[in-house]
Design brief:
Distance between the termini: 32 Å
CATH topology: Transcription Regulator spoIIAA
Strand content: 15-25%
Shape: globular
Order of helices and strands: EEEHEEHEHEH
CATH architecture: 2-Layer Sandwich
CATH superfamily: STAS domain
Number of helices: 4
């Protein structure tokens, strides 16, 4: 799969280069985020700029990531498309997840 990450001082930015976070890619997505959190033990920022669709498998993977990284720095999201944001809103996950409009806003919060 096309997953990239970039290490900063206070966070790791994970950028999935996929348009759909569904049952096909969800397990690998989840494992990549968990591996990054174990390797770096700082906040993982998931930049969802490319992800235009997320189904229940994708949401399950995101929730699994959230649970897995709580002891190693936490999780934040940025650049969330409206379709994906709607999934977070309908499931009330927007109340749990840290969601930012763009990377700069998210990064400045992580760097503080």
């Amino acid at each position: 799969m096309n997953f990239e990450h970039e290490l900063y001082e206070k966070c790791v930015v994970f950028r999935p280069g996929i348009a759909r976070l569904d049952s096909i890619v969800a397990p690998e997505f989840r494992q990549c985020v968990i591996d990054l959190s174990q390797e770096h033990e700082i906040t993982i920022v998931i930049d969802l700029a490319n992800v235009e669709f997320m189904d229940s498998s994708g949401l399950g993977a995101v929730i699994g990531c959230y649970k897995a990284v709580q002891n190693s720095g936490g999780l934040a999201f940025c650049n969330v498309h409206e379709n994906v944001k709607e999934v977070f809103t309908l499931t009330h996950m927007d109340r749990i997840f840290e969601i930012h409009d763009d990377f700069d806003t998210c990064f400045s919060k992580q760097a503080a």
